[in-house]
Specification:
Helix 2 packs antiparallel against helix 11, helix 3 runs parallel beside helix 6 and helix 3 packs across helix 7. This protein has a domain of 200 residues: DD-peptidase/beta-lactamase superfamily (Beta-lactamase, 3-Layer(aba) Sandwich), CATH 3.40.710.10. The chain has 11 helices and 15 strands. The strands form 4 sheets. Strands 1, 2, 3, 4, 13, 14 and 15 form a 7-stranded antiparallel sheet that branches. It is globular, with a radius of gyration of 20 Å. It starts with 13 loop residues before the first helix and ends with a helix. A hairpin with a 4-residue loop joins strand 2 and strand 3. By secondary structure, the chain is of the alpha+beta class.
Length: 395
């Protein structure tokens, strides 16, 4: 198997977890707590895992912390049934005070919003027959026309081949959502639709508006009701509530104030925290629940997308610079954070704040790496680190 089994494999009740813990040796370290639990129960501490892969993971993260690449991280390995490895290392906050990282820390996912919230919402509308991938976006957003925009399809936006600019001027967002949308509808194309890969936040903002217009619910409401609640992703949300703030990893300062509980991305922030390209917050445990849904059979309880829809979503497409799937990376210049040993069926995504999620159907491996690499100084780099850790667990 690709994973090392840890003694505590999870429990069906709190009593069972307590029973197992009573026989375990608890190791408390200032930098790392390793836990393994069933995916549908709260995390509980377990004996420190001294397997070689745990040692390698810990050494890589600690070295990166020492070099200022990040303040801390949560690393999680799971399969379609259970979490097999879960570790919190370093700190989630170092300034103005130090707070140790915990396995239930909530992170700003940045661009992981694209597949988990936006693309999944679009695929649900496809599954319901309310849209088609080859629909011109203008069929549903009638103002999205002119200068060739009327030929851009839903599928092209999901693949970043719609011809839209990567990001438009931040000033376009300063007057609020309505004006920002009007400015987007007036943007010129960078290339003919379907002819070039341009990783585009703007394209996913358009997809977020598409979800709103077709479903009648704003993206945050639609994804909460139809994705996160059915999957019991209780810590996954746009605009986190006040009770989540103490568990959120801060990023950097905005206007002299620490960004904690507000989206870091400046465009999403100016769009009231809800946009198709960024704004989602979540935990390792919740992302595992999402990943397990993507690996489950139709007959298993709790599915949001059917196996047929998942197959369509995760089918690789040539996008002129490697392959992408509908919402996910596959084998493009962005995919080095997924590890060197992933199978040809693996797909995943990263986020600017230092977050990574990869799902490998062939090995049934879910890899989650969560950090707030921008804390405290807006610097840091974790893509290489995440890829090295993923490779360790792919052996």
């Amino acid at each position: 198997m690709w994973f090392d089994r840890i003694d505590v494999q999870g429990a069906s009740s709190l009593d069972l977890v307590t029973s197992k813990l009573s026989r375990a040796i608890i190791f408390v370290g200032s930098l790392i707590v390793v836990i393994a639990v069933a995916s549908d129960h709260a995390a509980a501490e377990t004996p420190y895992d001294t397997s070689p892969r745990d040692d390698q993971t810990r050494q890589l993260v600690e070295a990166a912390i020492a070099h200022g690449k990040l303040p801390g991280a949560v690393v999680c390995i799971a399969d379609r049934e259970k979490i097999r490895y879960l570790a919190a290392m370093g700190d989630r906050q170092v300034d103005p005070t130090r707070e140790p990282m915990t396995t239930d820390t909530v992170f700003d996912l940045a661009s992981i919003t694209k597949p988990v919230a936006t693309a999944t919402s679009v695929m649900l509308l496809l599954q319901r027959g309310e849209i088609q991938l080859d629909d011109p976006v203008s069929k549903h957003l009638v103002e999205f026309t002119g200068a060739g925009r009327e030929t851009i399809t839903v599928g092209q936006l999901l693949l970043h081949t719609g011809g839209l600019i990567a990001d438009n001027a931040l000033s376009d967002y300063s007057a609020g959502r309505a004006t920002a949308w009007q400015r987007i509808c007036n943007l010129s194309l960078k290339s003919d639709p379907g002819t070039k890969f341009i990783y585009s936040d703007v394209g996913y903002i358009v997809l977020g508006e598409l979800v709103h217009r077709v479903s009648g619910q704003r993206l945050d409401q639609f994804s909460a009701e139809h994705i996160f609640q059915p999957l019991k992703m209780t810590d996954t949300t746009f605009n986190p509530a006040a009770e989540l703030i103490p568990r959120i990893a801060p990023t950097e300062r905005r206007d002299g104030t620490w960004i904690r509980g507000q989206v870091h991305d400046p465009r999403a922030f100016l769009m009231e925290g809800v946009a198709g390209h960024a704004g989602l917050f979540s935990t390792a445990g919740d992302l595992v629940r999402y990943g397990q849904m993507m690996l489950r059979d139709d007959s298993e309880q709790g599915n949001v997308l059917s196996r047929e829809t998942i197959a369509v979503m995760t089918q690789p497409h040539d996008v002129f610079r490697g392959n992408r799937t509908l919402g996910w990376d596959h084998s493009s210049p962005y995919s080095r954070n997924g590890g060197a040993m992933r199978s040809p069926s693996a797909y995943g995504h990263g986020g600017f704040t230092g977050t990574v999620l990869w799902i490998d159907p062939e090995t049934e491996m879910i890899f989650v790496f969560l950090s707030s690499r921008l804390h405290p100084d807006g610097e840091g780099e974790v893509n290489t680190l995440a890829g090295e850790i993923a490779t360790i667990w792919q052996h």
